[in-house]
Design brief:
single chain; 105 residues; mainly alpha
């Protein structure tokens, strides 16, 4: 491994890279990149807020009216009878509650 680093070409490459490395330049690039991304995100957020405020953000266009399905009257009567019987049973239980005898007596 020492032979690689002691080679004159590797010394030249290493010295060239060390001379050209500037940490302030890298920080400047990173900072400007994140500032640009932050500004773009801020502008997009304002645009989306404007769209939401005007109620146009999720609009899909004109929707064709759908036909309402016809209701089978026999099935409707059966369902309403079931609910009526449940209501009557609930009222009868509320008016005449079942009294259980105490098994300890």
């Amino acid at each position: 491994m020492n032979t690689f680093f002691s080679h004159p070409i590797s010394k030249q490459i290493r010295s060239h890279l060390v001379k050209r490395t500037n940490p302030h330049h890298h920080w400047n690039i990173l900072l400007s990149m994140f500032v640009c991304i932050g500004c773009a995100l801020f502008v997009f957020s304002l645009y989306l807020l404007f769209k939401i405020k005007n109620d146009t953000v999720f609009r899909e266009g004109a929707v064709a009216p759908t036909e309402t399905p016809s209701v089978d009257m026999n099935t409707l009567k059966k369902v309403t009878n079931i609910f009526d019987s449940k209501k009557a049973r609930h009222e009868s239980i509320k008016m005449n509650p079942t009294v259980f005898s105490d098994p300890s007596m």
